Amino acid sequence: MATSVASGSGQLHFQEAFLRGHGGRRAYTVRNIAVPLCMQKELSWASSLCRAVAGRTTATAGIAGYAVRHIAAATWSPTTCMDLSQHCWCSRWKGFGAAGISLPAWLLPYAHAQSIGSRVEYAKRGYIPMCHGVSKGLQITKSNYFQPHIKGECNLRRTVIRSYLREGHNKYFDFAVIGSGVAGLRYALEVAKLGTVAVITKAEPHESNTNYAQGGVSAVLCPSDSVESHMHDTIVAGAYLCDEETVRVVCTEGPERIRELIAMGASFDHGEDGNLHLAREGGHSHRGIVHAADMTGREIERALLEAVRKDPNIFVFEHQFAIDLLTSQDGSDTVCLGVDTLNTETHEVVRFISKVTLLASGGAGHIYPNTTNPQVATGDGIAMAHRADAVISNMEFVQFHPTALADEGLPAKPKEARQNAFLITEAVRGDGGILYNMDMERFMPMYDERAELAPRDVVARSIDDQLKKRNEKYVLLDISHKPRDKILSHFPNIAAECLKHGLDITRQPIPVVPAAHYMCGGVRAGLQGETNVRGLYVAGEVACTGLHGANRLASNSLLEALVFARRAVQPSIDHMKSSRVDRGASYSWARPIMPKSLGKTVLNNISLKTREVRRELQSIMWKYVGIVRSTTRLEKAEMRIGELELEWETYLFQHGWEPTVVGLEACEMRNLFCCAKLVLSSALARHESRGLHYMVDYPHVEESLRLPTIIFPSSPVSSSWSSRQLHR
């Protein structure tokens, strides 16, 4: 039978030959694929994009020698201060009084603003300075469309925009960036040169996965290293599922992205010879990882945020939880026109209308109970994109970091349970750390000839096997045989955290256990971060670019984020210049509403029920969809999660909740359910063991299945609340 499915602005046609059926899942071989000319990347490792009419369908498609499997805030936060002599924002307020400069009364509140949070508060009151580069769509509320970039001298003036953060309030920007990690901030700094940018962040700007990245950024910076070697390491770690073109692009462009960070003020460690100190981690053939001790992500985030604060065209919106993307249909195309957000401090809804949207919202670590991810990592971006009909890929490949700190093995246990596990960077093993079981027997050489330097999937499975065989709760990672001064200089953050709990890593081994760490899958992207949804780009952990394949090589995550954030800039600018956004478009979608009318008692009960359901979902995922899997256990998880979701949604709606009602805990739960089901569907479709996906009933790699898993949009008619947009 012949099937036609939507892709970009064209059609993707293919024939389906039925192979086999299994319950609600079907498998097909797909032939004769015509790729539309609109695609910006040759889809060598995947198909173009299609939409399943209903249900969940599984297919295998031969494309260019490969195959594809598919399954059916209301304020501007400017930099704190302004140097009147230079007509730009900077940090020189204190000199005004001494210089005899008298500030206008409306500007005085800014003189004492010393943080992004306080600047946001002043902006709420209507103190919004305008500089060159701010589009007339922001300056003049009567304008019907976004206007082109305005150049000229910066004119500081008081402009009161309707920014009361009431339901019904709209914001208009050229670019909306969802997420304030390395990908979102790096992208914002580039597109801000040609338009206004809203950076929308769920908590404080620094609270992102980037800030928790310890190890470093991998790049070819050593004369003895090469692009070919970095590519080889990446592809081997990815179990040969990586897209070779993507790998080459990232490994080639990586060094320049590092040099850009350094030029922006990021400070990395240097050796005694004055050159960058390059570390080595598991899976790497050479030393090629730049780092700032064991706090690399924090240093990169610091440098980028400092640059963002100085940019008059970038507006930071804190404590804005992204609810759903705003999409419409243009023929067969889905078009993204912005995002609805919930201000988690004022509990009111803000609608951002934008010409271009970048999703850089991180991963979904909190579908598991033990994760190194911060609390904000609840899969919001992946879930929103899926509901907006974006194609999702490779969600079965969840990376469990082998070495998170096992609190129960510390001499002095933390008084309260951590919200996220404390990471013990891969670099500890790269610097010579050795793994032992509780009898101080070194075990990694029994599992892999690379021992502690094997890729993460191998090490995590080896630790998991030791724990199950020996009925132990953690293993030991020992670096104490190295010189004390080198341990403390390379791992000061880890040493300090352990010492807080009575453990001296220069003398004692560190108790460690695997924890959910990174999503190798995500929203499917081309070589320029483009998706099948027009106007929607992705970068960072939320994206699936083909770089990581079935397992991410250590320290390739920040690298990928930097490269794709930069590559998404030009197509985004081109799209922005060719787009016109009708201000009346903001009324095209039903508005999310707050559940104020339900009353405090009902809301408290809903909150308690949601937390209980969240813990149960995480427990199911850890028990049945963890490091080692089986078809029987995956199917049991699928059944239990389906029942749990139905139970939770029934409870909500029986207590007065409506499909358009929003609250932080409920919306996070909605996204966690969505992501958990995406992981499960992908895992059930892969009948082999490859990389991070290990199946006891399919223990071997099958060359014929060296294909990415693709999840296409499905019919929203009978879907759950977690699977459909609120405004549909």
UniProtKB/TrEMBL annotation:
Gene3D superfamilies documented for this protein: FAD/NAD(P)-binding domain (3.50.50.60), Fumarate reductase/succinate dehydrogenase flavoprotein-like, C-terminal domain (1.20.58.100), Succinate dehydrogenase/fumarate reductase flavoprotein, catalytic domain (3.90.700.10)
Keyword Flavoprotein found: yes
Cofactor(s) needed by this chain: FAD
Pathway note: Cofactor biosynthesis; NAD(+) biosynthesis; iminoaspartate from L-aspartate (oxidase route): step 1/1
A molecular-function term among this protein's GO annotations: L-aspartate oxidase activity
Domain Fumarate reductase/succinate dehydrogenase flavoprotein-like C-terminal, chain residue ranges per copy: 614-700
Catalytic reaction annotation: L-aspartate + O2 = iminosuccinate + H2O2
Protein name listed in UniProt: L-aspartate oxidase
Organism taxonomic ancestry: Eukaryota, Viridiplantae, Streptophyta, Embryophyta, Tracheophyta
